[in-house]
Amino acid sequence: MASIIVKFNGIWRLYLGIERASMDADDLDAALSRIDKEYSVRLEENFKQRGVKLQKSILDYSYVVLNGKNTKTLKERSLRDGDVLDLFIAVPGG
Questions:
Q1: Of 49, 62, 75, 81, which sits most exposed with the smallest number of CB within 10 A?
Q2: Mean confidence (pLDDT) of the chain
Q3: Sequence-ordered list of residues with C-beta below 8 angstroms from that of 40, at least 6 positions apart, any chain
Q4: What CATH number is given to the structural domain containing 21?
Q5: CB-side exposure of 10: number of CA atoms within 13 Å?
Q6: Burial of residue 77, with CB atoms counted within 10 A of its CB: 0-12 exposed, 13-18 middle, 19 or more buried
Q7: What one-character DSSP code corresponds to residue 19?
Q8: Whole-angstrom Cα distance, residue 42 to residue 46?
């Protein structure tokens, strides 16, 4: 099990009220699952207070980067101690 840092960037930092968190996870998929469980509810509640209904996971609205690399293109899904997982709000456009 690896000990990693999760950074919430941009608007996620504002809406979640947290800049970073430490967590232990066996692999990338386990880390993402834990982020979904722990932070999607907090985000949904925060949006609800602002009159916005959020029906998806925080991950559905995020661009996720592991040590500077897009997680959607990674073939290797294992984690090592000290890895940094960054979440940015996904912004459509070109």
A1: 75
A2: 91
A3: 57, 58, 59
A4: 3.10.20.30
A5: 11
A6: middle
A7: S
A8: 6
